Amino acid sequence: MSGITQLSVFLENKSGRLAEVTRILAEANINLGALSIADTSDFGILRLICDQPDEATTALRQAGFSVGETEVLAVQVPHRPGGLAGVVATLQPLNINIEYLYAFAGRTGENAVVVMRLEDGRNQEAGEALQQADYVLLTHEEAYVL
């Protein structure tokens, strides 16, 4: 069981920085599957899953952006009330800290995908617990195409 690669791009909190990132990725023919932005007053963190993470990292670093790669879990959950509650309840007995998460609905609308960053070293344990509870963990390719 392995996680998927998420890129974290550090952005100054000023007009045009997101436009620059998306332009660079478009020019490199990189397609985005999911993204999230968290910000403070001075900077933002753009977290994204794309079809070519290595190429995206290279293109962004060449343009002067600070880019980190993080292994995250992508879990398929029923797209209905309580879907996320079941995932969190499965992890609760393990005392695994969820550092952050974001979600997106699949194209069919039947399932959503929850992308989770867990405390270091706990992906394997969390993934096994989720699979034992009949949740589906997605590969990078599967998470990207939803």
Q: How would you characterize this protein structure?
A:
By secondary structure, this protein is of the alpha+beta class. The chain has two domains: 4-70, VC0802-like, CATH 3.30.2130; 71-145, VC0802-like (2-Layer Sandwich). Helix content is 32%, strand content 38%. The protein contains five helices and seven strands. It has helices at residues 17-27, 53-62, 83-91, 123-132, 140-145, and strands at residues 4-12, 32-39, 43-50, 66-78, 98-105, 111-118, 136-137. Strands 1, 2, 3, 4, 5, 6 and 7 form a seven-stranded antiparallel β-sheet that branches. The model has no long low-confidence stretch (mean pLDDT 89).
Ends distance: 19 Å
For the largest beta-sheet, the strand count, sense and barrel status come to: 7 strands, antiparallel
CATH class of the largest domain: Alpha Beta
> In CATH terms, what is the fold-level topology of the largest domain?
VC0802-like
> Which radius of gyration do the C-alpha atoms yield?
16 Å
Low-confidence stretches: none
Q: What structural category arises from helix and sheet content? A: alpha+beta
Q: What percent of residues are in strands?
A: 35-45%
What is the domain tally? 2
Instruction: Supply the CATH superfamily name of the largest domain.
Output: VC0802-like
The CATH architecture of the largest domain can be named as: 2-Layer Sandwich
The secondary-structure element order is EHEEHEHEEHEH
Percent in helix: 25-40%
> How many alpha or pi helices?
5
Q: What is the 3D form?
A: globular
- Strands, count: 7
Q: Give the integer mean of the pLDDT values.
A: 89
